[in-house]
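To the team - farnesyl diphosphate complex, inputs and output below.
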Amino acid sequence: MDNQEIFPRHIAIIMDGNGRWAQKRLLPRKAGHAVGSETFRSVADYLNLHTKVEYLTVYAFSTENWSRPKDEVDEIMRLLRKYMDEACRTLLEKNVKLHFLGDLSIFPEDVRREMEDIHALSEKATGLHINVCVNYGGRNEIVNAVRAMAREGYDMTKVTEEEITAHLYTVGQPDPDMIIRTGAEKRLSNFLMWQSSYAELYFTDTLWPDFSGKDIEEALAWFRGRKRRFGGV
Ligand code: FPP
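Output:
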């Protein structure tokens, strides 16, 4: 296979740096999230239209993010709702599949229903599969999986990796091949703790609102240069 044809099947992104991007411009942090949500749209469109990447998972809101100032939390929730409303209108045309992953029980019923509707509406799409992680925490996901298995009557002394994998929010999906973190920090921050076991980790100083098609191409080129061994030689 031509080297240029090697794509990660699944890219996950920690979209970091919105606040700093805004502060550098003397704008409120909220403004960084607004531009960051546009960046997310264009990155998703780019991957869908110009690459063979099959899955994109983004960290939009963590279980820890509730501790941010109320106006910032409200703005991220407003942007999410705006994206959901827009998704209802554009998903079929774009042929993308959209899932919301996380502990969704915290959201009001109308929001949960819209998430379910979007899930169902886009189920037959054959283009990019997008997971938006909201009220998501990697450890919390594993705890929830174990609790679900206990409720389902599994013999917990004989639990296998495959069984835990099948109880995660990402059930049925391949693990991410590459995790991108923008904004210069080098940590995973409780993102995809189970699924990231063999992921290539790509860190860039670029702040999320500045991330562009050129930055994706650089990340994809870096990925092509990696030799993946999965624990072998
Ligand atoms: C991290 O930057 C970013 C977030 C906590 C929120 C990400 C949310 C969006 C991009 C908008 C909503 C998403 C969708 C899918 C519509 P930060 O605020 O921690 O930045 P900093 O490290 O510079 O402070």
